[in-house]
Amino acid sequence: AQSVSQHNHHVILSEAASLELGCNYSYGGTVNLFWYVQYPGQHLQLLLKYFSGDPLVKGIKGFEAEFIKSKFSFNLRKPSVQWSDTAEYFCAVLTDSWGKFQFGAGTQVVVTP
Amino acid sequence: DAGVTQSPTHLIKTRGQQVTLRCSPKSGHDTVSWYQQALGQGPQFIFQYYEEEERQRGNFPDRFSGHQYPNYSSELNVNALLLGDSALYLCASSQTGGADTQYFGPGTRLTVL
């Protein structure tokens, strides 16, 4: 069965620390990959997406993600986090041409001052 | 330009009742997808509407049904509510039939007592 795995459920780090969130998917075909973020009290927002081309994609607010096809991974990174990055982060995979998304369980990130 | 809107914001029902949730897509979008997000989990795909038809469906029982109107707005209906239906219900809209970025609404929090 197709699945999306996010390795960490909770991450706590200090401001200026680097962040890396893991995402692995199980699907053998062509996939489009997304990272969404949900800030406290807000709705899900797109951080970045990968459809094709350069496997290193840059998103909003200094986030980037690297698609490694051989590892079925799409890890999210930010070199230096801010308190305002406190949020829940979701990896999602678009597995068909009709727009069916499969989401991971999410990672709650807390950045302490 | 209004984004995706959903109503109501919160809803409390009792077991066995029926509920209708509503969604207006982002301007220019023709596809609406519905997701259920239980506490501590990622969104789970319920179904998707395009051209007023249910185009595909996730692993949800027939108690979950929907509708899309000519103006692309959509409804999610749940019959014979169970305690386990308590969740945040998210609507997402997209254009070009769905195989692109989905934009999410704020959700409707349903509590079943």
Oligomer: heterodimer
Largest interface: A-B, 24 and 29 residues
State the helicity of chain A in percent bands: under 10%
Q: Major β-sheet of chain A, in short?
A: 6 strands, mixed
Please specify the SSE layout and strand pairing.
The complex is a heterodimer of chains A (113) and B (113).
Chain A: E1 3-6, E2 10-14, E3 19-21, E4 23-26, E5 32-38, E6 45-50, E7 56-58, E8 64-68, E9 73-78, E10 87-94, E11 101-103, E12 107-112
Parallel strand pairs in A: 2-12
Antiparallel strand pairs in A: 1-4, 3-9, 5-6, 5-10, 7-8, 8-9, 10-11, 10-12
Chain B: E1 5-7, E2 10-13, E3 19-24, E4 31-37, E5 44-50, E6 53-57, E7 64-68, E8 74-78, E9 87-94, E10 103-104, E11 108-112
Parallel strand pairs in B: 2-11
Antiparallel strand pairs in B: 1-3, 3-8, 4-5, 4-9, 5-6, 7-8, 9-10, 9-11
How would you concisely characterize the structure shown here?
With 113 residues, chain A is an all-beta fold. Helices cover 0% and strands 53% of the residues of chain A. Chain A contains no helices and twelve strands.
Structure explained in plain terms:
Helix content of chain A is 0%, strand content 53%. Chain A contains no helices and twelve strands. The radius of gyration of chain A is 13 Å and the shape is globular. Chain B has 113 residues and is an all-beta fold. In chain B, the strands form two sheets. In chain B, strands 2, 4, 5, 6, 9, 10 and 11 form a seven-stranded mixed beta sheet that branches. A four-stranded antiparallel beta sheet of chain B has the order 1-3-8-7, with no helix packed on it. Chain B is 0% helix and 50% strand. Chain B has no helices and eleven strands. The A-B interface holds A 4, 32, 34, 36, 42-46, 49, 90, 92, 94, 96-106 and B 4, 31, 33, 35, 40-45, 48, 50, 55-56, 58, 90, 92, 94, 97-107.
